[in-house]
Structure formats: structure tokens, C-alpha cells
């Protein structure tokens, strides 16, 4: 209990009931004035908050006098963070008692890219997702390369990196103009499960591409001009047991799900209208699509998980099972430890006697 709570216990209980923070860990000599107190800190949200991607697909149906009837389905894809896991092993070394080694972390991405070309892991991932989504229907690998280069050269002005995939407003293939891609038939690409499966496959491929681009090498060799910033020393201070260090990549694990955000139609170049607002000729054309056309807000979840690399590394130490000391040295270390424990116990007893002096007999 603080001094202020002892003086004014009722006020202290009120502050506890309100959950107020005094600003100094609850140990202030004087209460913090109300006008000087700030708002409570923003709470951390759980992992169920997701990052979203939007994709639009257009399907051409019958042709009327006013033009061709088109159906546009917009999908919302979500990547929900499940947790973190250890990635692949980058480096391992075993140090005997008293040994030490200097290791360096070689991050090719940061050393090769100029300062204005560097992006975060999530930005690179979103740009790769946009390029894969745009070129998913092409058989040539050059289409993906050209799209990715075009997106990254226009990273400051392209809105596609924010979560818009092919077919959504601002998709990279339109070069600043609004446009959509056209699918072949409703039966081949309108199902929400099909869209979810294709999105998850693109997400896994984009994550693997991001990991390959941002590969990190941990070794005992590095250039002299980079040693001051990338090297660290590992030392085994244990006198009898060897220590093995494992260096691993830290990955984020996401679960993927999709749902139908909206279904719209139009004839020719007229504005898009909701599927609930149908004309008579549209009703006749869509009469046979009841089994293949998804329902609004229909959802699907993919069983596969997406593992996205991070910039973090995990250094993990493991103590050996067998001792490298001879029995005499181990016995001597145990004796020294016991002597240190006895000295510490004696000091505690002497301090306790000084704080409680013996009372004189009456």
C-alpha cells in the first residue's frame, strides 16, 4: 500500500475500483491530479483480426440489344494470424566450455536495395500477391516478372499493394485506370471455394517468393566493412557442459478464408447494379444460374495455412547432456557452490539479528 493510500484509504479504493493509473506504477507519494492524467493505453487485440484482399471477377452471359450482360462477383479474402512458429535452421554451432565464436548475419535484401527501394515484408508480400493474381491466367513466366517489376516501380502510386487483386478497382494491369478481368464461364470460376483455393495457392507462392527474396545467411565470415553492424559474439560460460546454439527464422502462420462480398450486373457500359435489383431480361438470362452462382456473403475456408517470413531470427541455446569435466573438478565445483550457499545463509541470519535486537529481561 502506498503512503497516499495509508493517509486516504477510501480514495485509494476508489482509484482501484475505477482502474485508474496514477502514471508512476502506483507508488506515487501524492496522487496524480485529474487534469494531468492521460487516457488509458489502447489494448492489444487478439490474433483473430485479419488482413483483407479484394478480388473481382466478371463473367459474360447473353447479349441483348443494349449490349452484353455481365455478372461481377467481388470476393473478400482474409488472412487471419494464427501465431508464430520456428522456421528453417539457418546456422548451428557447438561451443565447448570457455569457447566463443563471432557470427555475422548477411541480409542480402538490405545491402543490395537502395533506401528508396526497400519495403517491409508485408508490402513485398502484397505486391507479389497482386502480380500473381494478375498473371494467374497466363502460361508465360515473363508476364509475372513484368507485372511485379511494374508494380514495384510504381509502388508510391499503385493502390494494388494495399489489398486489391486482379479485377478489383485499381488492379495493376489497368495502369492507373479502373478495369476488371473476364472469366470464361460462371461454372468454372464463380464458386467461392474455387476462389478461396486459388487465393490460398497464390498466397503460399507469394510467401515462398518473399522468403527467397529476403533470405538471411548466418555464418562466421563477413566483409570487413560490415562487421561492426552485423557480427555478434556467442560465448559458452559454463565450466563443464558444452552449449549448442541454433539460429532459426521466425515465421508468421495465417489461416485463409474467403467470402462473397457482392454480386452485381450490368448490360453494356451501364453502371453496375446489385443482384437484388434485376430487370425482366436479366431474370430470364440468369434463370439457369441458380446452381452455379454463389450466394451473397457465402463463405469458404481453406485447410492449408500460409507461413510468411519475418525479419526476426531466433537464437536458441541447448545445454549438452554429458559433462566434459573430470570427477575431481565436478566435486570441487559442488563444494564451492555449497560454501557460497552457506556464506549467503550466514549473511541473511546476521542481517535478521540486526533488525530484531534481543530484548533485555524485565
Would you give an account of this structure?
Residues 1-7, 14-18, 156-161 and 169-182 have low confidence and may be disordered. This protein has two domains: 3-36, no CATH class; 50-319, no CATH class. Strand 1 (50-64) and strand 2 (67-95) form a beta hairpin. It has 362 residues and is α+β, with helices and mostly antiparallel strands. The protein has helices at 3-7, 9-18, 108-112, 121-134, 141-153, 186-189, 192-213, 227-230, 280-285, 327-355, and strands at 50-64, 67-95, 100-107, 182-183, 216-219, 231-235, 241-267, 273-274, 299-323. Strands 1, 2, 4, 7, 8 and 9 form a six-stranded mixed beta sheet that branches. A three-stranded antiparallel beta sheet has the order 5-3-6. The chain is built from ten helices and nine strands.
Proportion of residues in extended strands = 25-35%
Please state the overall shape, judged from the principal axes of the Cα atoms: elongated
Question: Which stretches are low in confidence, meaning pLDDT under 50 for 5 or more residues running?
Answer: 1-7, 14-18, 156-161, 169-182
Q: What's the N-to-C terminus distance? A: 36 Å
Q: Can you summarize the main beta sheet?
A: 6 strands, mixed
List how many beta strands DSSP finds.
9
Biased composition (Basic and acidic residues): 1-20
Region (Disordered): 1-35
Condensed summary:
The protein is α+β, with helices and mostly antiparallel strands and 362 residues long.
Amino acid at each position: 500500500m502506498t503512503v497516499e493510500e495509508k493517509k486516504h484509504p477510501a480514495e485509494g479504493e476508489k482509484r482501484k475500483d475505477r482502474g485508474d493509473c496514477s502514471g508512476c506504477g502506483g507508488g506515487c507519494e501524492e496522487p496524480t491530479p485529474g487534469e494531468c492524467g492521460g487516457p488509458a493505453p489502447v489494448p492489444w487485440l487478439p490474433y483473430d483480426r485479419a488482413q483483407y484482399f479484394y478480388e473481382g471477377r466478371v463473367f459474360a452471359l447473353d447479349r441483348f440489344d443494349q449490349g452484353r450482360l455481365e455478372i461481377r462477383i467481388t470476393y473478400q479474402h482474409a488472412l487471419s494470424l494464427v501465431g508464430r512458429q520456428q522456421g528453417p535452421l539457418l546456422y548451428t554451432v557447438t561451443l565447448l566450455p570457455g569457447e566463443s565464436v563471432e557470427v555475422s548475419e548477411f541480409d542480402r535484401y538490405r545491402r543490395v536495395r537502395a533506401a528508396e527501394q526497400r519495403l517491409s515484408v508485408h508490402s513485398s508480400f502484397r505486391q507479389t500477391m497482386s502480380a500473381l493474381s494478375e498473371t494467374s491466367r497466363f502460361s508465360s513466366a515473363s508476364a509475372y516478372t513484368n507485372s511485379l517489376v511494374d508494380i514495384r516501380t510504381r509502388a508510391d502510386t499503385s493502390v494494388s499493394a494495399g489489398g486489391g487483386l486482379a479485377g478489383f478497382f485499381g488492379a495493376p494491369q489497368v495502369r492507373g485506370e479502373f478495369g476488371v478481368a473476364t472469366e470464361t464461364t460462371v461454372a468454372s470460376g464463380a464458386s467461392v471455394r474455387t476462389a478461396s483455393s486459388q487465393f490460398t495457392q497464390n498466397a503460399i507462392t507469394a510467401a515462398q517468393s518473399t522468403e527467397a527474396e529476403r533470405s538471411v545467411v548466418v555464418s562466421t565470415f563477413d566483409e570487413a566493412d560490415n562487421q561492426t553492424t552485423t557480427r555478434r559474439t556467442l560465448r559458452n560460460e559454463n565450466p563443464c557442459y558444452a552449449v549448442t546454439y541454433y539460429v532459426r527464422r521466425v515465421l508468421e502462420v495465417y489461416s485463409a478464408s474467403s467470402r462473397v462480398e457482392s454480386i452485381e450486373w450490368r448490360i453494356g457500359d451501364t453502371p453496375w447494379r446489385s443482384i437484388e435489383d434485376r430487370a425482366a431480361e436479366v431474370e430470364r438470362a440468369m434463370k439457369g444460374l441458380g446452381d452455379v452462382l454463389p450466394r451473397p456473403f457465402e463463405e469458404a475456408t481453406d485447410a492449408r495455412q500460409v507461413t510468411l517470413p519475418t525479419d526476426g531470427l531466433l537464437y536458441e541455446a541447448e545445454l549438452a547432456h554429458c559433462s566434459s569435466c573430470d570427477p575431481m573438478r565436478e566435486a570441487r565445483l559442488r563444494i564451492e557452490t555449497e560454501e557460497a550457499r552457506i556464506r549467503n545463509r550466514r549473511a541473511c541470519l546476521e542481517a535478521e539479528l540486526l533488525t530484531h535486537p534481543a530484548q533485555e529481561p524485565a
